[in-house]
Design goal:
Layout (H helix, E strand, L loop, with lengths): L9 E2 L3 E5 L3 H10 L5 E5 L2 H29 L10 H7 L8 E7 L7 H7 L6 E6 L4 H9 L5 E4 L5 H21 L3 H7 L6 H13 L2 E8 L4 E7 L4 E7 L1 H13 L5 H8 L3 E3 L19 E3 L1 E3 L2 E7 L15 H14 L1
Parallel strand pairs: 2-3, 2-4, 4-5, 5-6
Antiparallel strand pairs: 1-7, 7-8, 8-9, 9-13, 10-11, 12-13
């Protein structure tokens, strides 16, 4: 049995579909959801089904793209600090424009919520059922059958907190589902994905810096998280496991041109080198190798450094072309027109 990854190699915000045949209650549910979540509203289950079935193609293509990225991500022979795979995702202006969650009322005359869930044969979209007290037994059965991922009763206290917590959890589980068939090799080579202490620390880091999307790229020497905030500005979290540090030292030791001071610092895990090209030292760095070496901090067994985009000018990255802030502005402007 596979262990669920509490942390995914990639995450960015996605859309939520809310379906209820009563316009007033539909808008009421929408008001409960945090403003930084893009919610598309439907009064017709059939219309919602039509739109979301079309969206299934996006998810199928996304799975294939992630599988390709997965192969590069888990490669243990790739040394280059090549950001091409990440560029394909982070510079895609359409990345936010996909559904990951459906919030649906159970009691609708055209088609009830469970019938809608049954007919939406998209295995990646997560489903939240809104029920009345009388329908709780039906909701429990549907949850046990795996037809829905969560249910929330209309009469619950603090329903807004329950709903937003469910949306946050399931939006991450959407990415877990995308990677589910492949996560065992990655968890072996990237153990921090299963480290609850690291996950909690990383989530706090994202909150502190308003990071709304992140992308992991790793090789045998380091793991790099490309962090993108709401406005589209970048940061880099460079992480090194003890195993990666050992390889880094062995590679440096084998290269007779590496300065003794640098070799000692790598051995003691005081620094994390970030050389461009093949990612290892060569003679061109003799005069200025300190410009490519960063003082490391410790997080349990991991060494890490948090860098601004301009700290790594060789990557040529400053900010994304289309940020989540821009997407939300365009999304709400379109809603007002329609």
């Amino acid at each position: 049995m596979k262990t669920e990854i509490p942390f995914q190699p990639m995450f960015f915000p996605t859309k939520v579909a809310i379906i209820d045949d009563e316009q007033d209650y539909l808008e009421q549910i929408n008001l409960l959801v945090n403003d930084d979540v893009a919610c598309e509203l439907f009064t017709s289950p059939l219309q919602a089904l039509k739109v979301m079935r079309a969206d299934k193609t996006k998810n199928e293509r996304f799975v294939k793209e992630c599988s390709s990225q997965w192969g590069n991500l888990t490669s243990m022979v790739q040394l280059e600090h090549d950001m091409t795979d990440l560029h394909r995702f982070v510079y895609d202006d359409r990345r936010f424009d996909r559904f990951s969650i459906m919030v649906v009322d159970y009691d609708m005359p055209e088609m009830n919520g469970l019938e809608l869930c049954q007919q939406l044969r998209d295995p990646w979209i997560k489903k939240i059922l809104i029920t009345g007290k009388a329908d709780s037994g039906i909701a429990i059965q549907a949850f046990n059958r795996g037809l829905i991922d969560q249910f929330i009763r209309k009469e619950e206290e603090n329903i807004d907190l329950h709903l937003n917590a469910a949306i946050d959890k399931l939006s991450h589980q959407y990415f877990t589902g995308i990677y589910a068939s492949n996560h065992e090799p990655l968890s072996q080579k990237a153990p921090y994905l299963l480290d609850k202490y690291f996950v909690a620390w990383f989530k706090q880091l994202c909150q502190t810096h308003d990071v709304v999307e992140y992308y992991l790229k790793k090789n045998i020497l380091i793991s790099e998280f490309l962090l993108v905030d709401r406005a589209g500005a970048f940061k880099f979290l460079i992480l090194q496991t003890p195993e990666q540090a050992t390889v880094q030292y062995e590679v440096a030791l084998d290269d007779k041109s590496v300065p003794e001071h640098l070799l000692t610092a790598i051995h003691n895990r005081d620094v994390i080198p970030h050389f461009s090209g093949q990612g290892v030292y060569d003679n061109r760095y003799n005069a200025n190798w300190r410009e490519y070496v960063y003082a490391a901090k410790r997080l349990n067994d991991y060494a890490y450094v948090l860098l601004e985009a301009n700290d790594l000018p060789e990557l040529g990255i400053e900010r994304v072309g289309y940020s989540y802030h821009q997407f939300l502005n365009d999304f709400y402007a379109e809603m007002l027109v329609n």
